[in-house]
Amino acid sequence: MKTDMMAQTPPMGWNSWNTFFDQYDEKLIFDTADAMVEQGLLAAGYEYLIIDDCWSMRERDAAGKLVPNPEKFPGGIKAVADYVHSKGLKFGIYSCCGVRTCAGYPGSFEHEFSDAAQFAGWGVDYLKYDNCYRPRTMTSSMLYRRMSMALRQSGRDILLAACQWGTEDVHQWIRSSGAHTFRSTIDIQDAWKSIEAIASSQMENQCFNGPGCFNDMDMLVVGMYGKGLNPETSIGGCSDEEYQTHFALWAMMNSPLIIGCDIRNMSEKTKEILTNPDIIALNQDPECRSCYRIDVYGNPDTFVLVKPLSDGNYALGFFNFSDVAAKVSLDFWDMGLSCAFGQGMRFHDCFTHEDMGIQKEFFAPTVASHGCRVYRCSIAED
Ligand code: GAL
Question: Is 257 exposed, middle or buried (0-12, 13-18, 19+ CB in 10 A)?
Answer without folding.
Answer: buried
